[in-house]
# Entry
Amino acid sequence: MNREECSVRLRLADEYSRLVTEFNALLDVLKVRSHPISDVVWNAAEAARTSSQKAWEALERHIVEHGCTDSLPASPGPDLGVLREMNEEES
Ligand SMILES: [Zn+2]
# Structure
């Protein structure tokens, strides 16, 4: 099989890319401190992080098992607890 064209990996990578883009967009909103952030936004961001983390783990597992590429994208990063605490201290 051509290593570059594993359709399963491409599908998982697309899914992860879509979810992590959504998560990063919410993260940008959270980092703007000039307005109070509602729980709705925090909860949406945490849900987006959870989904993107799961998609990343599925992609990582596939790559480990299938060996179809050497490159794994960066994971979504740490959870939002620290960011949220900082925000609550300031508000
Ligand atoms: Zn594969």
Q: What stands out?
A: The chain has one domain: 3-90. The first helix runs from residue 7 to 31. Residues 3-90 form one domain. The two ends are 55 Å apart (CA to CA).
